[in-house]
Design goal:
Layout (H helix, E strand, L loop, with lengths): L8 E5 L3 H14 L4 E6 L3 E3 L4 H5 L9 E3 L8 E5 L2 E5 L4 E4 L3 E3 L2 E4 L3 E3 L7 H4 L6 H13 L3 E6 L10 H16 L5 E6 L12 H11 L3 E3 L4 E5 L4 E4 L4 E3 L2 E4 L3 E3 L1 H5 L3 E2 L3 E2 L13 E3 L12 H20 L13
Parallel strand pairs: 1-2, 1-9, 2-5, 9-21, 11-12, 11-17, 12-13
Antiparallel strand pairs: 3-4, 6-7, 7-8, 10-18, 14-15, 15-16, 19-20
The structure holds flavin-adenine dinucleotide.
């Protein structure tokens, strides 16, 4: 029988891609001998890659949401609460109604969308980077009969760098299917330089694919603000792009709680050891979009990190098995 003093409490913050995988694996590996607790403000896990299908009306919000309580079958206690703070000295997390202590803390709080960081953004852009906005965009598309559709990206990191390309192509296919592609101009803007190099380089290939579909690519366009009345995106050096429907990715930043407690830097997220995912605080690890790893902000990355971290923590806690190396398969 497990001695009470050896019983460990592993707290996982966030029930997105990284948090759910870490909780599932640790619950399975540690069973009832230890406490695995997952905290999220939402009752459900939301599968964000499918926001693009919500945008087109091919999925409903309920199709891409699952109750986090399902994790309780895997020995995971789920607490629905806002997370207000982390105290690394006391090894405690402050929730709405209680403080919970931890022996090990896994932070997987993703990145938060921050429409307030670009003037005019909230009134102007409809985008599939949040569920409610994806639903609004779906409804706008249903009523759209023609005009200029502009897809674009902000400065700084955002969830899934290739997704704005997918969004352009899916919109192209949607308008073709609807029989109105001849009445729609699609344009894309990014602050990146025009890609050059080998045709099989992913960015070169994506650029070529967009052009093949008749989508104009505006490179080195840095957004300053948006004028929702004139329907114009204003860039640096007086550059402007007009639109009828704007599908711009919102700026993203680390969760406010991570900035407030000093675990995350302003834009880059939480500094982690690239091999162990350990943060500057003892027994505190970060995975997924909130971790400042040299990798895409992608669910696939969060999943791989969660698998490796859960395995290695289980080895440390139980003394059984051998740790494995983190080797990310991503661009
Ligand atoms: C349109 C779109 C398409 C995408 N396509 C792909 C794809 O094809 N492939 C791919 O790999 N990835 C894709 N992604 C990216 C992927 O969804 C994210 O990289 C992934 O979800 C990150 O997982 P995470 O666990 O780090 O964070 P998240 O999934 O963002 O989870 C963070 C969780 O923390 C919770 N939270 C945050 N702050 C608090 C707080 N203070 N209190 C309580 N709870 C809090 C949130 O509610 C959330 O549930 C896409 C994303 C989008 C938007």
């Amino acid at each position: 029988m497990q001695l009470l003093s050896q019983r460990k409490k592993i707290v996982i913050l966030g029930g997105g891609c990284g948090g759910v995988v870490a909780a599932t694996q640790l619950g399975r590996k540690l069973g009832a001998d230890h406490d695995v607790i997952l905290v999220d403000r939402r009752p459900d896990h939301i599968f964000m890659p499918a926001f693009l299908f919500v945008m087109l009306g091919e999925r409903q919000p309920r199709d891409i949401s699952r109750s986090l309580k399902i994790l309780e079958k895997r020995n995971v206690r789920v607490i629905q609460s806002e997370i207000h703070g982390i105290d690394p000295v006391r090894q405690e997390v402050a929730l709405e109604k209680e403080k919970i202590s931890y022996d090990y803390l896994i932070v997987s709080l993703g990145l938060q969308t921050r429409p307030d960081l670009v003037s005019g953004f909230a009134e102007a852009s409809q985008h599939p980077w949040e569920m409610d906005s994806a639903v609004r965009l779906r409804d706008s598309l249903a009523n759209f009969r023609g005009g200029r559709v502009v897809v674009g990206v902000p400065l700084g990191p955002y969830r899934c760098p290739p997704a704005p390309y997918e969004a352009q192509w899916m919109l192209d296919g949607y308008f073709r299917k609807k029989g109105i592609r001849d009445h729609v101009e699609i344009e894309y803007f990014t602050r990146e330089a025009e890609p050059t190099g080998e045709a099989h380089d992913p960015v070169v290939w994506m650029d070529a694919e967009s052009k093949r579909r008749g989508i104009k690519q505006n490179y080195e366009f840095v957004v300053r603000s948006i004028d929702p009345e004139k329907k114009v995106v204003q860039g640096l050096y007086n550059a402007e792009i007009s639109y009828d429907l704007l599908v711009m990715v919102p700026p993203h930043r680390p969760a406010q709680v991570l900035l407030d407690c000093g675990l995350a830097d302003t834009e880059t997220g939480i500094r982690v050891d690239y091999d162990t995912l350990q943060t500057k605080w003892d027994n505190v690890y970060a995975i997924g979009d909130c971790a400042d790893m040299p990798a895409s902000k992608a669910g696939g990355v969060a999943h791989q990190e969660a698998d490796v971290l859960a395995h290695n923590l289980a080895v440390e806690i139980t003394g059984k098995g051998r740790p494995v190396d983190l080797w990310l398969h991503t661009i």
